[in-house]
Amino acid sequence: MATAAARTVLCSSQLHLKLLSFPFYLSLSPKLPISSNPNLLNKNPVFSSPLPPVRCLQYSTQQASTTRTHEAIRRPNVVDILEERGLLESLTSDNLRCPPSTSNSTLKVYCGFDPTAESLHLGNLLGIIVLSWFQRCGHKAVALIGGATARIGDPSGKSLERPELDIDTLEKNTLGITNTLTRIFNMDMNLNNPIVVMNNYDWWKEFRLLDFLKQVGRYARVGTMIAKESVKKRLESEQGMSYTEFTYQLLQGYDFLYLFKNEGVNVQIGGSDQWGNITAGTELIRKILQPDDGAEAYGLTFPLLLKSDGIKFGKSEDGAIWLSPSFLSPYKFYQYFFSVPDADVIRFLKILTFLDLEEIDELEREMKRPGYVPNTAQRKLAEEVTRFVHGEDGLSEALKATEALRPGAETKLDWKTIEGIAEDVPSCSLAYDQVLNLSLVDLSVSSGLLESKSAARRLLKQGGLYLNNSRVDGENKRIEPEDIVDGKVLLLSAGKKNKVIVRIS
Ligand SMILES: Nc1ncnc2c1ncn2[C@@H]1O[C@H](COP(=O)(O)OP(=O)(O)OP(=O)(O)O)[C@@H](O)[C@H]1O
Ligand SMILES: N[C@@H](Cc1ccc(O)cc1)C(=O)O
Questions:
Q1: Boundaries of each RNA-binding S4 domain copy (predicted)?
Q2: For 170, 191, 229, 437, which has the most beta carbons within 10 A of its beta carbon?
Q3: pLDDT in tens, 293-329
Q4: Which residues line ligand 2 (CB under 6 A)?
Q5: Dihedral (Cα; 227, 108, 56, 184), 10-degree rounding
Q6: Which of 397, 421, 398 is CA-nearest to residue 469?
């Protein structure tokens, strides 16, 4: 059937969390949501970092009545954590809340990503965060690149068949996504619990059609397949659905079976649009492998992260929030979260960061108090998410650019900082001779910063025109050699938001 899959085990050079190198012992108390039990959550290194580990519990309501007096080794309950943070939509079985022999069994969870773009995006970050929560609770995680499934195209949530991708594009995308996953997980996790990255092309490339039909197709019921949301919707549409796309759910279903059988993976996670594909897997496992009681395969979905217009964050939308720094600079990434509306910021903090819920609740209370400094919660969100995705270096790059770009900032601009934000700010090139001695009013117009000289004069009078972040007062200001930063660039700003970089050619 299938060959052993190639795997990449990621190792971290930075030990950010000294996690689970010891068991978590319980002092049992009635089942409390973890975040609302201050003895558990607040001081646990799983949730924040530097404080000493404490006793932590996971047991079902049923167990609570019978085992209250016992001390047992338990892990923090990952399902409870996800639920409290708004990261749980559906479970295939409530047993996952307390799988049999939980006390010392480790779950192995996977999430798949089809390489349909060179970078992952904000929507995909939820899968990464949920994988990381499993790891933080001591479970093992696998990130699966859908090298095979991307050739088919997941119909879930799509009104049209996806365009076919050529091999070069697929390979480029696979590399890009693998780099992002390795970067994030390397920064996040420790050597004791590295993530494993696999590619489903490794087992699909050798699976022959006749074997597939015999070993898998025979167990899949067409009625059940047609009833899946992803299929129903498409069948109602004018374009219908190809047989190839129709089989997608079986490919993803078989992936789960393959990973269950060969790698001991017993949980699959995904956004709620993946429910049909995930349950295709749990069904195949149940029918084909008939695992013993207590060796169940579980599916867990999280809600889709939606934009204010109700459309999911994805790669297909304009202004996608990419996770790869070559698609969206850490500065722009940081700015996106810094600008999240007050109405969304607390929800985002719960979903997208690993901060204690207590800390988030306190921020929420603070937001309602008089004297709250606007954007404090957004700043925390932007810092946490940027650090998780781009690391300390990415965060400090973003903070440096943010500060440097603040009109009136004390920081002296250098050429490197200005170039660092160049992709996020409009720019133009002008010859040295054209710029030297030119009035600032004229330069504001010729660089495209302002529409007219009268607008430039008006802004100057109001004190809203900046050259290299310094406010210019005199209407007669002309560009001098020392205004050209490192002899290469100038930064013009009209108010806080509008900026232009002038490169000297
Ligand atoms: N906005 C989102 N919120 C939560 N999860 C998401 C979101 N977008 C994608 N995911 C999840 O990320 C995983 C990979 O998704 P996928 O590679 O298909 O990206 P996609 O964004 O759905 O693609 P496209 O933009 O082409 O629709 C799936 O588990 C999917 O549910
Ligand atoms: N179907 C998932 C990707 C995926 C591929 C293979 C899997 O086994 C699991 C998930 C998506 O479109 O996002």
A1: 439-496
A2: 170
A3: 778 999 999 999 998 778 888 886 667 999 999 999 8
A4: 112-114, 144, 146, 149, 154, 200, 252, 255, 274, 277
A5: -100
A6: 421
